[in-house]
Amino acid sequence: MIHKTSGLLLLPLTLIFLDFILISSLAKPTPITSLSVLTYGAKPDGSKDSTKAFLAAWQVACASPNPTTIIVPKGRFLVGNLVFQGTKCTNAPISFRIAGSIIAPEDYKIIASSLQWIMFDGVTNVSIYGGVLDAQGSSLWKCKNSGGKKCPTGAKTLLFTDSNNIRINGLTSINSQKFHIVIDQSNNVKINGVKVSADGNSPNTDGIHIGNSHSVNITNSRIGTGDDCISIGPGSTYVSIQGIQCGPGHGISIGSLGRSEDEQGVENVIVSNVDFMSTDNGVRIKTWGKDSKSFVRNIVFQHINMKMVKNPIIINQHYCLDKPCPKKESGVEVSNVRYEDIQGTSNTEVAVMLDCSKDKPCTDIVMGNVNLVLQMVYGSAQASCNNANGLANDVVVPFTPCLKRDLLLT
Question: Could you give the C-alpha distances from 137 to 158, 208, 224, in angstroms and in order?
Fold first, then answer.
């Protein structure tokens, strides 16, 4: 009786399950709308202004309740300042599939006046795949390098601000007037396989800059510029940087921090599997010599190769660009910074420089399996320590006097 009753009970459940499968198989997937910028008047000839066409395509995608792909086909598309506003969008996913190049006007003044060339403001679920952004910034670099007093600051090439769930994959950015890619006040950002290029003498052309943002992932990218390959500014947390080729440039920097007293700090950053080639710095932390409530903590630099790098490992807490400098000690607290498996050659005698604040010494600095040698045939690499303390685990070359030998390893 129990067996028969169980079977009777299972029969309606089986029918319900079969109905569910039938209904599911008949359900249509959410349609994806495709829009070409050509439809809205864009011309791939590199001479006609296509700014309005790009904005028109965005407006349609923004209003769509369904995922939308904006297609930029092969060719060269001339655009001025682009601002893609997301505050009135449905937040359905929008993807840019770029096969061609988007180029800025040759006259640098046209886009320099607005401080950014292409901006996404308040967007959610936006992705960019492929393509080239050419800001044609070389004429502005010449103006700055010649000491011209009327040179504008320049425009950032690509800015995401106040945005969420952003993907940038396979994009190439060249010849930016200023920073190439900027992530500002944004969350959950993944950047993969990008290429960033500008001349080694191009001023302030950071490859990727992160500020006031959380959960930012940068992977498998090649960056060579006249400034930092990647810079991490105030208020940034949970940043992961992996698989980067950096050079030329100023390396990967946390900071500068502490320029203003109430500036936010940086924490929970991992930099891993990076190759530095002929850069001015390797892994760097820089803070201003000023009063500050800021901090740098919970940082890991690991699995890094240095080739002819001027300052492979550096903490500089007396950074200053002002004239005259305030000549104060930095109030930024630097703590719990780990350097693991860092190998290669230094172009300068001092391969490790820990120049920390007298008022707020660096604490919990840990090094292990560090081996940096002098590139030159004669001499050996040295380390310089001021106001820093921590541990040396395993082999640390050059000898770093402020780090105590871990007694468990002796």
Answer: 13, 16, 15
Q: Which amino acid is at 186?
A: S
DSSP, res 27: P
Contact between 286 and 313 under an 8 Å Cβ cutoff? The reply is no
pTM above 0.85, yes or no: yes
Q: Compute the distance between CA of residue 142 and CA of residue 151 in angstroms, rounded to an integer.
A: 9
Backbone φ/ψ region at 79: left (φ over 0), alpha (ψ -120 to 50), beta = beta
Token digits of residue 187: 């969350």
Residue range 88-115, pLDDT digits in tens: 999 999 999 999 999 999 999 999 989 9
Catalytic positions: 227, 250
- In sequence order, the 6+-apart residues with CB closer than 8 A to the CB of 337 are 285, 296, 297, 299, 300, 301, 315, 362, 364, 365, 366
The DSSP result for 180-227, as a single string, is SEEEES-EEEEEES-EEE--TT-TT--SEEEES-EEEEEEEEEEE-SS
Q: Which amino acid is at 337?
A: V
For residue 255 the two structure tokens come to 């900071």
Are the C-beta atoms of 389 and 403 separated by less than 8 Å? Answer: yes
CB atoms within 10 A of CB 327: 9
| DSSP structure class, residue 87 | T
